[in-house]
Amino acid sequence: MTRTLTIRRPDDWHLHLRDGAMMEAVLPETARTFGRAIVMPNLVPPVVTGAQAAAYRDRILKALPEGMSFDPLMVLYLTEDTDPEDVARAHASGIATSVKLYPAGATTNSASGVRDFDRVRPVLEKMAEIGMPLCTHGEVTDHDIDIFDREAVFIDRVLDPIRRATPGLRVVMEHITTAQAADYVRAHDSDLGATITTHHLIINRNHILVGGIKPHYYCLPVAKREEHRQALVAAATSGDARFFLGTDSAPHPDELKEHACGCAGCFTATNTMPLLAHVFEAADALDKLEGFASLHGPAFYGLAPNDDTITLTKSDQATAFPAKIESGAGPVTVFDPGFPVYWS
Ligand SMILES: NC(=O)N[C@@H](CC(=O)O)C(=O)O
Ligand SMILES: [Zn+2]
Ligand SMILES: [Zn+2]
After folding, report:
1. Which EC numbers characterise this protein's activity in its record (predicted)?
2. Residue at 16 is within a domain
3. Which DSSP helix (H) or strand (E) runs through 300?
């Protein structure tokens, strides 16, 4: 028996498109399904200024295959030298939707990120004034903090003080992985939102470590205990508009994932919506999928939902997703949930 679910076309509020040959390979995987995406700026060198964001946006649109519609929403990478006036101009002209805070050293290509949070205070104040959201990679980088605690400690030591010191600053806690993060969002007002990835709704830390190390399940923030995965599923399927989809689809060539010092990132652009349909159905919450994937994100960013729709279909046959996609930079493994999925 087939069943179908038609929803507004979704958007991806946290995506890595990279650049050059890799971008050409992964862009269609997203644009096929998603109307818009918040495009993360952690290129080498990073996308810091409004002019760099405009140039990157042009490269994305040039790489978009004929006949596909997709609107990349650009993000500026916050450095200690970022000029508040450049940020304000890029926002006013529509070229930049948000600013991204990476604590220096927290994740892939974050070396130019922030060490001394006082130095970015003028930028944050300007953003609060103009209503421009701050997207955060919420992990501290202190060597003495256990990697599984880095998100919770970031909330206490960095995020909460920043929010208290900057009234009106709108913040998206990106790719949350803990019950503490979901609780922090719930305890505050609509100035705070959070993205949740597809893979963090599916894997816990056992998937990475039991029965041999699985590099394609390694991402940052690293997946936590099962109780945290369950807290994320509860948040995503709750209908609470402060939680929305950001896949954090983060392609790396297999050669650099299957490596003595493997890169962090799961590539989920290809199969995200079928996997989410599976997760939401298992939680008896298919009726909440449209809100999570297509409505809550635009509402947070003050945009209208997409006009068009997508239709998900469930059949009796497990869907055969490609194991890898080819890129000019080498093959990239598509996230494997580890169970059969009947949605496509
Ligand atoms: N999530 C990841 O594990 N990796 C991302 C960076 C990020 O979002 O932290 C990447 O750019 O590869
Ligand atoms: Zn991140
Ligand atoms: Zn990311």
Report:
1. 3.5.2.3
2. yes
3. helix 296-301
Task: Determine the distance separating the centroid of ligand 1 and the alpha carbon of 219, expressed in angstroms.
Answer: 6
- Both tokens assigned to 54: 């405009």
Q: How many domains does the chain have?
A: 1
Is 234 a member of any domain? yes
pLDDT digit string, tens, across residues 300-320: 999 999 999 999 999 999 999
Residue 312 and residue 277 in contact, taking contact as beta carbons nearer than 8 Å: yes
Instruction: Show the domain range for 43.
Output: 3-333
- pLDDT of 118 higher than 70: yes
Query: Distance between CA 245 and CA 296 in Å, rounded?
Result: 8
324 neighbors 270 (Cβ within 8 angstroms): no
Q: What distance in Å separates the CA atoms of residue 222 and residue 310, rounded to the nearest whole number?
A: 31
Task: Write the pLDDT tens digit of every residue in 161-211.
Answer: 999 999 999 999 999 999 999 999 999 987 999 999 999 999 999 999 999
For residue 247, is it within any domain?
yes
